[in-house]
């Protein structure tokens, strides 16, 4: 079975409860044929209850069974998806490059299908009002945090992205009333990010999480949630290429929404910062 919703199910299968896994496996086995069944029929074939089918839909980020059916019907008319690929020993460079392209395209398609436009708009509005923005991530997520900081610094925002957790905690303790904290963690379980989220909340700072799809510790207690597709990170792709690509896509999307609110000022600020950098060369 191929398609956006099926990939989402496959990537999150292990996170589901036992009864939800029964529903998931039925969908993976029967594909778009499920779209022709009632909720009761799906439950019967999955050997579970209609309520479990509804819970499964919500676990997949869907509002209910009707949305699941729409997603499955839409998939039936799509070409086979690009898919995810891991590298193998002694593969030719052209094959490796094509695999990277396939992984990137799949990651972007899966993440795009999950983007909550209203949530992006709301967060962008809050960022306009914020006097200070704090961003934190560990490992590959730090690269995303650093890119995040550079983008908004060029638009005149006061942004802090530091790797030292003690320093970040100190800065947030003396933050102005209108401040925001962005915690970036693909797993949503990074201890340092969760600790800083708690410090932000204690100090009355609005909190935003950027994680992979699914329920996690970081998402449970933030004001706003942004999620990416949960692509598989196989052993030989442990450099987190797919997750980083997805996170960068969300940050860039948020940047576009934010910048478009006052495009004339955005263009002016970007020209000014570009001119300043040019003077350094």
UniProtKB/TrEMBL annotation:
Name this polypeptide is given: MurR/RpiR family transcriptional regulator
Residue ranges of every copy of the SIS domain listed in the record: 123-264
PANTHER family xrefs: GLUCOKINASE (PTHR30514), HTH-TYPE TRANSCRIPTIONAL REGULATOR HEXR-RELATED (PTHR30514:SF1)
Domain of life: Bacteria
Any matching Pfam family: SIS
GO molecular function: carbohydrate derivative binding; DNA binding; DNA-binding transcription factor activity
Source organism of this protein record: Brochothrix thermosphacta
Alphabetically ordered keywords of this record: DNA-binding, Transcription, Transcription regulation
InterPro entries associated with the record: Homeodomain-like_sf (IPR009057), HTH_RpiR (IPR000281), RpiR-like (IPR047640), RpiR-like_SIS (IPR035472), SIS_dom (IPR001347), SIS_dom_sf (IPR046348), WH-like_DNA-bd_sf (IPR036388)
GO biological process, one term: carbohydrate derivative metabolic process
Start and end residues of each HTH rpiR-type domain: 3-79
């Amino acid at each position: 079975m191929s398609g956006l919703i099926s990939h989402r199910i496959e990537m999150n299968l292990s996170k589901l409860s036992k009864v939800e896994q029964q529903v998931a496996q039925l969908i993976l086995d029967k594909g778009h044929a499920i779209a022709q069944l009632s909720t009761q029929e799906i439950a019967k074939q999955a050997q579970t209850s209609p309520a479990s089918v509804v819970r499964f839909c919500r676990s997949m980020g869907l509002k209910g069974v009707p949305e699941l059916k729409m997603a499955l019907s839409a998939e039936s008319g799509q070409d086979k998806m690009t898919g995810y690929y891991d590298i193998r020993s002694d593969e030719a460079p052209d094959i490796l490059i094509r695999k990277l392209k396939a992984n990137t395209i799949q990651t972007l398609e899966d993440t795009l299908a999950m983007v909550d436009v209203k949530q992006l708009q709301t967060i962008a509005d809050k960022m306009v009002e914020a006097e200070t923005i704090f961003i934190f991530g560990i490992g590959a997520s730090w690269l995303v945090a650093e890119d995040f900081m550079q983008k908004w610094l060029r638009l005149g925002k006061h942004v802090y992205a530091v790797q030292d957790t003690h320093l970040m905690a100190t800065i947030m303790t003396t933050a102005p009333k209108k401040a925001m904290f962005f915690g970036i963690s693909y797993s949503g379980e990074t201890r340092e990010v969760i600790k800083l989220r708690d410090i932000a909340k204690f100090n009355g700072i609005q909190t935003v999480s950027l994680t992979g799809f699914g329920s996690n510790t970081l998402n449970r207690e933030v004001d706003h949630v942004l999620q990416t597709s949960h692509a598989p990170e196989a052993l030989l792709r442990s450099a987190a290429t797919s997750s980083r690509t997805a996170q960068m896509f969300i940050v860039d999307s948020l940047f576009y929404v934010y910048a478009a609110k006052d495009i004339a000022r955005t263009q002016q600020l970007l020209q000014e910062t570009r001119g300043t950098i040019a003077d350094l060369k």
